[in-house]
C-alpha cells in the first residue's frame, strides 16, 4: 500500500474514533433566577436538623402577586423614623429549602448589639406566612430573654416551650437558618444559640447546644440562600 494512501486511511480512522469517544453535550443546569422569590433549592446537612447535604437544584417560581407583595412588607406602624431591616425567611414555594433575605420596613431600631437583635425577634416569631415566608417557629412561641456576650459575639435567645412543638417537614431547619442568618446580620453578633426555658433547645430531635454562625450553616448545606427581595415603596402593601 502506498504510504500516502495508508496515512490518509489512518487519519480518517483516528477522526472517526475521536467522534465516537468525544463527550456529548452537557445538560445545562437550571439557572438561579435573580428576581424576587427565585433561587436554588437545597437538601439537608450533617451536624444539624435535616439529613444529607444538598446538591444543586433548579430555580423555582413564585406567583407574581405574591412576589409584588413581598416587596412591600411594612411593620413600621407609620413610624416617621422607620428603617429597613433584612430578615431571612424559608421560602415555602421552594419546598422550604431556599432561604431568602427580605427587606422589611420596621420602626426605628437601635444601631447595634443586643437591643437591635431583640427588636428583630418579632419578625422571626411572627413571619408573613401568608406570603409563603416562614421561620419554622411554632405558633404561640414568645421570647423570654436575649443576651449578648460582647467578648465572643455569641447571642443567646431564650424562648418559651412552644418553640419545640414544630410540625411538618423542614421546620427545624427553617428555624435554625432564619435565626442564625438574621441575627448574625446585627453588628456585634458572630454566632447564635437558642435556649428554651433556660436550657439548650431541642428541635426535631436535634439539640442546639452550641453557638452557630453562618459559616457553620454553610458547611451543613441544608438550605441555600437565594437572591433577595428589596423593599419597593411603590408596590402594593402586603395584604392589599
TrEMBL record:
SMART domains, sorted: Germane
Signal peptide range: 1-22
Keyword Signal recorded: yes
Region ranges (Disordered): 39-60
Record-annotated GerMN domain positions: 117-205
Keyword Zinc: no
Pfam families recorded: Germane (PF10646)
InterPro entries attached to this UniProt entry: GerMN
Biased composition (Gly residues): 39-53
Record keywords: Signal
Protein name: GerMN domain-containing protein
Amino acid at each position: 500500500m502506498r504510504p500516502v494512501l495508508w496515512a490518509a486511511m489512518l487519519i480518517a480512522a483516528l477522526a472517526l474514533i475521536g467522534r465516537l469517544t468525544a463527550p456529548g453535550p452537557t445538560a445545562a443546569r437550571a439557572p438561579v433566577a435573580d428576581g424576587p422569590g427565585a433561587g436554588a433549592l437545597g437538601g439537608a446537612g450533617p451536624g444539624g436538623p435535616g439529613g444529607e447535604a444538598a446538591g444543586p437544584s433548579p430555580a423555582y417560581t413564585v406567583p407574581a402577586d405574591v412576589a409584588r407583595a413581598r416587596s412591600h412588607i411594612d411593620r413600621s406602624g407609620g413610624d416617621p423614623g422607620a428603617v429597613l431591616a433584612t430578615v431571612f425567611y424559608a421560602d415555602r414555594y421552594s419546598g422550604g429549602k431556599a432561604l431568602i433575605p427580605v427587606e422589611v420596613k420596621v420602626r426605628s431600631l437601635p444601631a447595634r448589639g443586643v437591643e437591635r437583635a431583640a427588636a428583630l425577634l418579632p419578625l422571626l416569631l411572627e413571619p408573613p406566612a401568608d406570603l409563603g415566608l416562614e421561620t419554622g417557629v411554632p405558633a404561640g412561641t414568645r421570647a423570654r430573654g436575649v443576651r449578648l456576650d460582647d467578648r465572643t459575639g455569641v447571642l443567646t435567645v431564650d424562648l418559651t416551650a412552644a418553640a419545640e412543638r414544630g410540625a411538618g417537614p423542614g421546620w427545624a431547619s427553617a428555624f435554625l437558618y432564619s435565626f442564625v442568618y438574621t441575627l448574625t446580620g446585627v453588628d456585634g453578633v458572630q454566632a447564635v444559640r437558642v435556649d428554651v426555658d433556660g436550657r439548650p433547645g431541642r428541635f426535631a430531635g436535634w439539640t442546639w447546644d452550641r453557638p452557630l454562625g453562618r459559616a457553620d450553616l454553610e458547611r451543613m448545606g441544608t438550605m441555600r440562600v437565594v437572591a433577595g427581595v428589596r423593599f419597593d415603596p411603590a408596590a402594593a402593601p402586603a395584604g392589599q
